[in-house]
């Protein structure tokens, strides 16, 4: 019972902290692409961000106005929730042209895993999944090696079986060889 409770608690914590913002949760996973955040983040890094109210100095993931599917990960350098935050990439010498408000900010960067985004991007690629399905289908549908049906192999196996049983009594009835050999003598 204690094991089940521990497992349920672990799953609950993972769901609470890992539920994606796209499904109404508070966690956003971002794979960094580009050089605007170097040396903080590099292309292929995975950044986990959580919802909250950013402050100056926080790295945020936000959706620029008019680009519902786009994401930008840059640092807050000023502003506020009412007038919009002033955002800039660490490697940029210019400010972002957008001033995101609270509804535009998906999360504040909380965890950074260098290089993991490269692996994750492979898993997100539909061509990688299609290739994997083709290989799996090939493995499942490839014909197996047929059993040998060579007459010489079958004949040799049958002869060995007959030789091994020669001289043995069948169901307690002596064989012809047993009848010719006196009791106690070795054939």
The largest sheet, given as strand count, sense and whether it forms a barrel, is: 6 strands, antiparallel
What's the β-strand tally? 6
Radius of gyration: 36 Å
Structural class: alpha+beta
What is the structure about, briefly put?
With 187 residues, this protein is α+β, with helices and mostly antiparallel strands. It contains five helices and six strands, in the order αββββββαααα.
Explain what this protein looks like in three dimensions.
- This protein is of the alpha+beta class.
- Helices cover 33% and strands 20% of the residues.
- 15% of the residues are buried.
- Residues 161-167 have low confidence and may be disordered.
Keywords:
187 residues; alpha+beta; six-stranded antiparallel β-sheet; 5 helices; 33% helix
Give me the secondary-structure topology:
Blueprint: H1 2-18, E1 27-31, E2 46-50, E3 59-62, E4 72-80, E5 84-88, E6 105-113, H2 116-124, H3 126-141, H4 151-165, H5 176-180
Antiparallel strand pairs: 1-2, 2-6, 3-4, 3-6, 4-5
């Amino acid at each position: 019972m204690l094991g089940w409770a521990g497992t349920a608690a672990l799953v609950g914590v993972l769901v609470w902290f890992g539920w994606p913002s796209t499904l109404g949760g508070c966690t956003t996973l971002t794979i960094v692409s580009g050089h605007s955040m170097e040396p903080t983040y590099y292309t292929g890094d995975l950044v986990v961000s959580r919802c909250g109210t950013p402050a100056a100095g926080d790295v945020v993931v936000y959706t620029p106005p008019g680009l519902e599917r786009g994401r930008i990960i840059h640092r807050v350098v000023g502003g506020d929730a009412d007038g919009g935050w002033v955002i800039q990439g660490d490697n940029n010498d210019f400010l972002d042209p957008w001033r995101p408000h609270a509804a535009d900010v998906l999360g504040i960067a909380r965890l950074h895993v260098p290089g993991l985004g490269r692996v994750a991007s492979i898993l997100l690629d539909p061509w990688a999944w299609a290739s994997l399905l083709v290989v799996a289908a090939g493995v499942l549908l490839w014909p197996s090696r047929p059993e040998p049906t060579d007459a010489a192999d079958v004949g040799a196996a049958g002869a060995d079986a007959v030789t091994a049983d020669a001289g043995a009594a069948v169901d307690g009835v002596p064989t012809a060889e047993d009848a010719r050999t006196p009791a106690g003598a070795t054939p």
